[in-house]
Design a protein that fits this description.
Length: 219
């Protein structure tokens, strides 16, 4: 257990998880002091009772705060938005109800769809060795879907989706960088948007974090 009032984010040692990324960025944007505690997924530390029995589903990330445990990045981000609410803390979601609904829609979609793209352009290809094989028809179809949705969401200015920055901008930029970092061409507006979001200080803090020299896949 942690000290009263402390925030601990449980992550993985290679710093390549889009879900740990999302909650890391959310905590950073909120301006909250927090600690990252690393679990070795290769050694199945997330299945050990000391973690599993609190996180319940043995998933990473999880957040511990004052004895409360929340797992799944979208749930963590929602908790942070409610517990450390605007205006005292920076917002993670749009203020208008309709825009908040759209933000949640996009968040859920990014976590549940585009599986072929995830498989063929995994996060290891973003932070370690680039992918060497062309996208399959299924991968190409997923990439086309991502581009179509991004084009519909991103304003002509290539600025944040909802006028002001939200956590959805970080999540969408991360997904787009599966393509960008592997050399895939994107329409100018989408590329400008993704690259601008990638330079946000909270995003850079994750992207530039120290990593092991080589990725070791799970046995």
């Amino acid at each position: 257990m942690t000290e009263p009032g402390s925030l601990v984010l449980f992550g993985e040692p290679f710093w390549i998880s889009p879900y740990v990324f999302s909650s890391f960025v959310a905590l950073t944007e909120k301006g909250l002091p927090f600690t990252v505690r690393i679990l070795s997924l290769n050694d199945r530390e997330h299945h050990q009772p000391a973690y599993r029995d609190y996180a319940l589903t043995a998933t990473v990330p999880a957040l511990e705060h004052d004895g409360l445990w929340v797992a799944e990045s979208s749930a963590i981000n929602e908790y942070l938005e409610e517990r450390f609410a605007p205006p005292a803390h920076a917002p993670l979601l749009p203020r208008a109800i309709g825009q908040r609904a759209r933000a949640r829609h996009v968040t859920s979609w990014l976590r549940s769809d585009l599986m072929a793209l995830r498989d063929e352009r995994p996060t290891t290809s973003m932070f370690y060795e680039r992918a060497e094989t062309p996208l399959s028809p299924a991968g190409s179809a997923a990439a086309a879907t991502l581009v179509r949705v991004a084009d519909a969401l991103i304003p002509d200015s290539a600025g944040p989706l909802f006028g002001d920055w939200t956590i959805v901008d970080a999540d969408l930029a991360f997904m787009l960088h599966r393509l960008l970092l592997n050399g895939h061409a994107l329409p100018a507006k989408i590329r400008a948007y993704a690259e601008a979001q990638w330079q946000r200080p909270s995003v850079r803090a994750y992207v530039e974090h120290a990593r092991p020299a080589a990725f070791v896949p799970r046995p």
